[in-house]
C-alpha cells in the first residue's frame, strides 16, 4: 500500500501516553506503551492534519510479534497510516469512522517504532483517536491509548490553522452556538459488533479495545 502524506507534522510537540492504560499482562520483561503528539495543527481550509503514532517497548526483553491499531472517531478521520493496512468498513468498531492495522513485528527492548498518520479533522465536531497494542494473534491487548481527544477550547476559524492539544475536548464553532451539544453518556459505551471488534467502557481513562480481533479485510 502506497499512501500520500501531504500534511506537515513538524510542529508536533513531544510524545505523550496520556489516556493510555495497560490491559492484558504482557510477557515477562516486556512493557508496551504508545505515544501521541501533545499538539497537532489542523489546516482550516483543507481540514488536513498529520499525527505521529509511536509504539514503544520500555521493558528488558523483546516483545514478540505485535500489532498496532490506529482508529479514528467523530471529527477525526484516519485516511492512511504509512506501511499499514486499512480495516474494512464492516470490521470497524461501532462508533469509529476509520482504522488501520500496523504489523509491528517483534519490538526489541528499549526500542520504538513510529508511524506517520494522515488524517482530516472536522473542527465542527469533537475528535478522538485510539491506539491499541495487540498480540499478533489478536487474543490479547497489552496496552490501549484512548479513545483520547484532540481539541481546543479557543477555536480560531479565521486563522490559517487551528492548534489542537492532546487530552482536550474540542469546543467546536457550530451554526447557532459555540459548542457541539453532548448527547449523553450512552454514546460513549459501544456494544460488541457482529464482527467481534468493538470498544467497551473501562473507567475514567476512556474506552478500551476488546480482546477480540477484527476480521482481516479480503484481498481482491
From TrEMBL:
Residues 1-24 are annotated as: Disordered. It comes from the Bacteria. This is LPXTG cell wall anchor domain-containing protein. It comes from Streptomyces prunicolor. The lineage of its organism: Bacteria, Bacillati, Actinomycetota, Actinomycetes, Kitasatosporales.
Amino acid at each position: 500500500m502506497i499512501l500520500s502524506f501531504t500534511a506537515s507534522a513538524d510542529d508536533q510537540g513531544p510524545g505523550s501516553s496520556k489516556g493510555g492504560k495497560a490491559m492484558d499482562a504482557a510477557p515477562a520483561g516486556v512493557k508496551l506503551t504508545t505515544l501521541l503528539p501533545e499538539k497537532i495543527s489542523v489546516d482550516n481550509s483543507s481540514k488536513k492534519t498529520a499525527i505521529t503514532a509511536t509504539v514503544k517497548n520500555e521493558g528488558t526483553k523483546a516483545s514478540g510479534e505485535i500489532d498496532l491499531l490506529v482508529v479514528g472517531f467523530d471529527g477525526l478521520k484516519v485516511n492512511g497510516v504509512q506501511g499499514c493496512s486499512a480495516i474494512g468498513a464492516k470490521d470497524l468498531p461501532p462508533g469509529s469512522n476509520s482504522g488501520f492495522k500496523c504489523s509491528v513485528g517483534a519490538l526489541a527492548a528499549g526500542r520504538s517504532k513510529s508511524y506517520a498518520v494522515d488524517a482530516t479533522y472536522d473542527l465542527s465536531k469533537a475528535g478522538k483517536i485510539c491506539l491499541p497494542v495487540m498480540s499478533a494473534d489478536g487474543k490479547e491487548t497489552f496496552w490501549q491509548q484512548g479513545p483520547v481527544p484532540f481539541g481546543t477550547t479557543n477555536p480560531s476559524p479565521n486563522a490559517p490553522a487551528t492548534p489542537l492539544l492532546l487530552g482536550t475536548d474540542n469546543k467546536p464553532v457550530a451554526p447557532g452556538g459555540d459548542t457541539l451539544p453532548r448527547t449523553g453518556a450512552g454514546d460513549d459505551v459501544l456494544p460488541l459488533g457482529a464482527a467481534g471488534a468493538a470498544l467497551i467502557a473501562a473507567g475514567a481513562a476512556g474506552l478500551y479495545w476488546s480482546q477480540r480481533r477484527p476480521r482481516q479485510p479480503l484481498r481482491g
